[in-house]
Amino acid sequence: MLKVVKFGGSSLASGESFEKVKKIVNADPSRSIVVVSAPGKRFSGDNKVTDLLYICQAHIKYNASFDDIFDKIGERYREICHHCKLKQDIDAELEDIKSQFGKKTSVDYIVSRGEYLNAKLMAEYLGYTFVDSASWLVFNYNGKVNFEKSYENLARIYEVTPKIVLPGFYGAMPDGSIKVFSRGGSDITGAIAAAAVNADTYENWTDVSGIMTADPRIVENPRPIENVTFAELRELSYMGAEVLHEETVFPVRQKNIPLYIKNTNDMNARGTLIMESFDEDESEKQTHFITGISGKKNYSIFTIAKSRMNDEPGYIRKTLEIFENFGVAIEHIPSSIDSFSVVVSSQLVEKCMHDIISRITEELKPDNIKITNEISLIAIVGRKLAFNIGIAGKIFTALGENNINIRMIEQGADEINIIIGVDDKDFKKAIRVLYNLSEVEK
Ligand code: ASP
Question: Ligand 1: which residue has its CA nearest to atom 5?
């Protein structure tokens, strides 16, 4: 059994959190590869080390002194070393890095040092071997990860070094220079490492007990999702659920490696398991018919009506082409016989709304165009929706009973989600009503 475990910045913010991580790693001998972020915030209002490094870089760029910021960063690592009684010469390490910064090194090099140093400290603390991610995770010249080579590199290292700590967030370009992923990118490092060594599980440790059924800022204490498929997760995150870095899932999904989201502050909580599919009997037992609910505000609906539209082939295509010409991505196209609607993000049509209307009017001569703004879209996601008769009825009844007007309805052909449109003013209420419904219906 081999597990790759990744800890986020909030799980590594101080010496005390390092202790929790050690406890988790030691609790399971199969946790052999540990991927770490840079120290995150210890309390609200605190700084993430990566943010401080970006500030350092801005000072260097404008030839301003970065001493104070660098001292703040140094303090974070000194506290960890002191608390964990580490032996390595952190001052010498910091001095060395600081002298590199003075040589105007790239942004990517500068901001990657947060993970680099944290991994060195964690390796000593756990008694594992530090392996620099620049030595195995490689990018192509086009800036995309060279998966084949990275997998090969890490697998080779793992053969001779079975207990490893890796810094997340960065790798190396073909010329050896450092390149970082976008923010939050240590999730991806962990997923690539898990795929490289064909891990049995990839555990992503954070500060919540898994992915929540609904946004905790809207629903009080939502239940964590137990099991979610990658397809469901994609729907939930597309509609606003903040879960993982988008690119994370690709390497583990491709190799069918189960991905757990777990809580460093509650190590025995089960967390959320993400897989390609679940044994249906298992999922029958465990899951509610709604896996999760997410949504976003601020959409606009263009409703275009023309009698006998169905006799005019290409009518919808020509309309969509107009949106395309303005670079507007379309979210949904609910339709009826003599009318159809185009749902788009209001932000995308903010500046071209009138141009789009006049082009549709000129070129397609509709009987009527109606624009409805301030619409929220809510996705009710669940792989079991397809097998349950009457679910849609229950959803609409619950919303109706709560005086929520449904402005749009759509169900994908794969039946893993139902999307409804409501007025922005009803957004939070609708999410709460749907959450309560998901709690009672199994
Ligand atoms: N430390 C980096 C960030 O703050 C990467 C990560 O934590 O995943 O974005």
Answer: 184
